[in-house]
Amino acid sequence: MRRAGLNRRRLVALLALQPLLAVGLADAAVPQKGDVVAWPAISLLDGVRIEAEHLRGRPVVVVFWSLDCGYCERHNAHVEKLYRASAGSGLLVLGAVNERNSEAVRKHMAARRWSFPVTLDSPALASALGARRSVPFTVTVSRDGRLVELIPGEMVEDDVMSLRKLTR
């Protein structure tokens, strides 16, 4: 007697294809290198709001990070150096922290003497930049508003400091 619907062989074949279909659908919506960024408005931890128009024509480095990430700790020490070295160059260095408690972020940054601008992680910002769930995750955007680099993981100081090349 034959059962109606999917037989075992067809079910196995469909299950094997599922990851491929999911990747194909997910990749279509994820920004890639060379894509123009559709910037959302960004609210910084200090209350300043950066409108999308303010980001046009400016090179930008965004680092997605988390308070409890040891890799982020070391990485962000280099990000702070980049921020200070880039003052007046036009490069915007921005942190996007995966946290909802703004006071915890303020205390964390103050204890480390970090002063680069930070926004609480925004799904709209992550979506616009193609950010992944891993942290730290560094994204660079050129003056013409295109994604240049999507860099997962901790970077050494020289590599972070080399991001100043975006100002040329």
Topology, pairings included?
Layout: H1 8-29, E1 42-43, E2 49-50, H2 52-55, E3 60-65, H3 70-85, E4 92-97, H4 102-112, E5 118-120, H5 123-129, E6 137-141, E7 147-152, H6 157-161
Parallel strand pairs: 3-4, 4-5
Antiparallel strand pairs: 1-2, 3-6, 6-7
**Strands, total number:** 7
Alpha-carbon distance between the two ends: 73 Å
Spans where pLDDT lies below 50 across 5 or more residues: 11-28
Strand order of the largest sheet: 5-4-3-6-7
Task: Sketch the major β-sheet.
Answer: 5 strands, mixed
Task: Please name the CATH topology.
Answer: Glutaredoxin
Class of secondary structure makeup: alpha/beta
Strand content: 15-25%
Integer tally of domains = 1
What is the CATH domain class? Alpha Beta
C-alpha Rg (nearest Å): 20 Å
Mean pLDDT: 86
H/E element sequence: HEEHEHEHEHEEH
Q: What's the name of the CATH homologous superfamily?
A: Glutaredoxin
- Counted by DSSP, the helix tally is 6
Describe the structure.
With 168 residues, the chain is an alpha/beta fold. The protein has a single domain, classed as Glutaredoxin (3-Layer(aba) Sandwich). 39% of the residues lie in helices and 18% in strands. The protein contains six helices and seven strands. The protein has helices at 8-29, 52-55, 70-85, 102-112, 123-129, 157-161; strands spanning 42-43, 49-50, 60-65, 92-97, 118-120, 137-141, 147-152. A five-stranded mixed sheet has the order 5-4-3-6-7, sandwiched between helices. A two-stranded antiparallel sheet has the order 1-2. Helix 4 (102-112) links the parallel strand 4 (92-97) and strand 5. The protein is globular, with a radius of gyration of 20 Å. The model is unreliable at 11-28 (pLDDT under 50).
